[in-house]
Structure formats: structure tokens, C-alpha cells
């Protein structure tokens, strides 16, 4: 069974460009979560989505960041006009249902470097 | 802001030794999970605990959830080099069940 697939694994962008990060959840999982891991910091929740719906975006910066999980295709985390502070590892996770005590299955992340 | 503190931050031990990692919060968890993360990879779920006082064993790993559901511990018996990694606890607080708050992690190195 394929796990959570994220691509690209590494992404380099210049300041001001856009970054698009993709996440395909595990088969049968309809709940997707995005987390960000800054160097030497823990994972921080960004957004929780179900198909075509944003359920909780309380961890998402108000500007430049957006996320979607369309009916067909992967979930996309989009960062517009990237700045150096956006450099981080972005992890996607999925679960078969929402709410505790469900464990999350994580992908191997996209490492974004902004130059 | 809800904080979840892990201790120690770093731990370097020799093969065969025992160790305990702690995860503490001032708030009550509705559930708590432990993950292990290796360099360049995503976290991998080890266990979920839900009930206060609950103890779960996974081979040489023993997880305990505090009676008040504010803290947890991970004990490893007879550590092996394969146990090396970053151990993360993650709590779901009441009312925010789908949003995990992660601790900053304990980086464990087990040498021969």
C-alpha cells in the first residue's frame, strides 16, 4: 500500500516566487493535515482539510498561504511571494477519519528553500 | 498558547542502557501520541494513549499516560542503535481534537 506521497521532496524558490506543494493521502483516507517544521523547532499545525472543505486553518498565516483538497487530485499547499522565513520542511499527513484518537500517517515532506 | 515540553532535549547513551523521555503540559489532553522521526523522513506513529493511567507496550518501548492526562512518558529498555532518532510527543487538547500540538522532541543517539 502506498503511503502518503508528497512532491517535490526538495523545492528551491527565489524570494517573490510561488511554491506549490502536493500531497496525495493514503488510499482510503479523506482527511489531510499540513504541518510545518522549522529548523530546530517542532512541528506546527497549519491546516486540516477534507475533500473540498477546509475544516480548520487556524495555524495558517493569514497572508500568502492557501490550501485546497479538491474532489479529484492531491491536496495543494500554495505559498505566494515566498520569503526567506518560509524556508522549512512541510509535512502532509492523512487519516481515515478526523478527530482524536486517530493517529496520523505522515509523508516524507517537502523541503522548501527560499534563496 | 498551549505548550508541550519534552525532556531531555538530547540523550546519548550506549547500547543496552535504559532511558525515559518525558512529555509535560499544563493542560489536559484528550489523547496523546508518540512518534519517531528519522532524518529526511516524516514522523512515524508509535502509539496512541487515551485513558488516564494507561500503559502500552511496544516490544522494548513502554508508554504511560499520566492519571490526570497532562503528561506522558516513554521508557526504552535495553536500547539498540536502531532506536536512534527524534522522539516526538503530540497531544490533542479537548475541543481541538483534529489539531495535534507537538513537543519539540527528544533526540536520542544510541551507540555501540
Question: Describe it for me?
Answer:
The complex is a heterodimer of chains A (115) and B (112). Chain A has no helices and eleven strands. Chain A is mainly beta and 115 residues long. In chain A, the strands form two sheets. In chain A, strands 2, 4, 5, 6, 9, 10 and 11 form a seven-stranded mixed β-sheet that branches. Chain A has a four-stranded antiparallel β-sheet with strand order 1-3-8-7, with no helix packed on it. In chain A, β4 (31-37) and β5 form a beta hairpin. Chain B has strands spanning 4-7, 10-14, 19-25, 29-37, 44-49, 55-58, 61-65, 71-76, 85-93, 100-102, 106-111. In chain B, the strands form two sheets. In chain B, strands 2, 4, 5, 9, 10 and 11 form a six-stranded mixed β-sheet that branches. In chain B, strands 1-3-8-7-6 form a five-stranded antiparallel β-sheet, with no helix packed on it. The model of chain B has no long low-confidence stretch (mean pLDDT 92). Chain B contains no helices and eleven strands. The interface between A and B is medium-sized, with 28 and 26 residues.
Amino acid at each position: 500500500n502506498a503511503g502518503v506521497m508528497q512532491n517535490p521532496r526538495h523545492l528551491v524558490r527565489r524570494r517573490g516566487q510561488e511554491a506549490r506543494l502536493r500531497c496525495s493521502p493514503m488510499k482510503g483516507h479523506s482527511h489531510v493535515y499540513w504541518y510545518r517544521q522549522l529548523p530546530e523547532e517542532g512541528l506546527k499545525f497549519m491546516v486540516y482539510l477534507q475533500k473540498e472543505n477546509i475544516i480548520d486553518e487556524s495555524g495558517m498565516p493569514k497572508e500568502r498561504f492557501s490550501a485546497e483538497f479538491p474532489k479529484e487530485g492531491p491536496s495543494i499547499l500554495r505559498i505566494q511571494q515566498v520569503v526567506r522565513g518560509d524556508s522549512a520542511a512541510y509535512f502532509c499527513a492523512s487519516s481515515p477519519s478526523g478527530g482524536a484518537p486517530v493517529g496520523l500517517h505522515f509523508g516524507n515532506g517537502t523541503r522548501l528553500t527560499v534563496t | 498558547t498551549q505548550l508541550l515540553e519534552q525532556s531531555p532535549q538530547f540523550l546519548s547513551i550506549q547500547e543496552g542502557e535504559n532511558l525515559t523521555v518525558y512529555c509535560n503540559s499544563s493542560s489536559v489532553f484528550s489523547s496523546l501520541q508518540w512518534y519517531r522521526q528519522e532524518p529526511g523522513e516524516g514522523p512515524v506513529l508509535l502509539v496512541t494513549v487515551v485513558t488516564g493511567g494507561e500503559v502500552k507496550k511496544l516490544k522494548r518501548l513502554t508508554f504511560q499516560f499520566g492519571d490526570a492526562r497532562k503528561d506522558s512518558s516513554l521508557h526504552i529498555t535495553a536500547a539498540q542503535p536502531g532506536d536512534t532518532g527524534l522522539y516526538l510527543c503530540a497531544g490533542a487538547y479537548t475541543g481541538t481534537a483534529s489539531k495535534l500540538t507537538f513537543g519539540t522532541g527528544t533526540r536520542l543517539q544510541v551507540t555501540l
